[in-house]
Amino acid sequence: MKILVTGGTGYIGSHTVVELQQKGFEVIIVDALFNSRIEVLDAIEKISGTRPEFESFDLADRRLTDEFFSRHHDIKGIIHFAAHKAVGESVEQPIKYYRNNLDSLMNILESMTKYNIPNLVFSSSCTVYGQPDAEHLPVSEKAPIKKAESPYGNTKQIAEEIISESINAYKGLNAIALRYFNPVGAHDSAMIGELPLGVPNNLMPYITQTAYGIRECLKVFGSDYPTHDGTPIRDYIHIMDLAKAHVVAIERMINAKMKKSFEIFNLGTGTGYSVLDVIKSFEKVSGLKLNYEIVGRRAGDIEMVWADPTFSNDELGWKAERCLDDMTSSAWKWEQTYRKNS
Length: 342
Ligand code: UFG
What we know:
Blueprint: E1 2-6, H1 11-22, E2 26-30, H2 40-48, E3 53-55, H3 62-71, E4 75-80, H4 87-92, H5 94-114, E5 119-125, H6 151-169, E6 174-180, E7 182-184, H7 203-212, E8 218-221, E9 233-234, E10 236-238, H8 239-254, E11 262-267, E12 273-274, H9 275-286, E13 292-295, H10 310-316, H11 324-341
Parallel strand pairs: 1-2, 1-4, 2-3, 4-5, 5-6, 6-11, 7-10, 8-13
Antiparallel strand pairs: 9-12
Helix pairs in contact: 1-2, 1-8, 3-5, 5-6, 7-11, 9-11
Bound molecules: uridine-5'-diphosphate-4-deoxy-4-fluoro-alpha-D-galactose.
């Protein structure tokens, strides 16, 4: 059973590829390597024992995408990760984000109808909820969608609409959108993990790079939020739990277990932690003192959000199993292993 994973050399993609292979799926990756490295294929092969098929081209190119699918009639499902994902960059270069993230999705949907590929799993984000009102915390899939705070977030909202409308229009198409909360951590083998190019935007790689001495000091953005310690709260989820959910989703589609032809699931643990909670967990598992300072708020940050994963737990039979200490310790092991080997 062959599955196409777009963006399969990226952070979430690479972990999902390994999980799929270990479940017996054959994987083909398409990745333009805009924000990832070809060496990830070697690491995937070391972990799973199988090198996935790989092609490098831009899925936003309609002709190349059609040409790819015309050569691959055996693809039974697509997990679509490939997208730009830096919130700040999307504010500075919105067209880059709309063009890449939406053109690639539309090209894939068009090819799915043309070549009769029925199943799509789409990478969405809790960013669609913005800052939920107090009565919607923890946030379930029924919470209202808020106006997106960035072009990146807007591409996720528009993408969900494009998928929904396509499914209404074209018989035989099915999709599952997975709304991720904050994915962190690395594979148990420490052979793959998050590998941001340049200065990290996200908390966990900034923590591990600071501890390793690559960054001087972590800036904690704001301590005046209405939370237990004043720092913002997020639902951090271990990348391995997240990867497993993708396998469950694609199996649900292939085994015709869907209740509707377009389903949406939150992927979170159901527990929120503050920035200082994450730092404390890191210091505990690493035995190090992290160099950090509290500075002003970062523009656009929301105060607090965490998932109500009840629907995913009940419907998918999936549950995030790993705790915050597992997340920080695996991220730290990955950072050290990667730096020693590079
Ligand atoms: N933070 C710091 N210092 C840093 C980096 C982050 O204090 O150097 C804090 C942030 O202020 C925030 C928390 O750590 O409170 C988490 O920040 P991240 O940047 O790791 O994650 P975000 O919640 O801001 O972003 C995530 C996803 C985005 C998505 C966004 C939607 O990474 O893709 O949620 O809210 F768009």
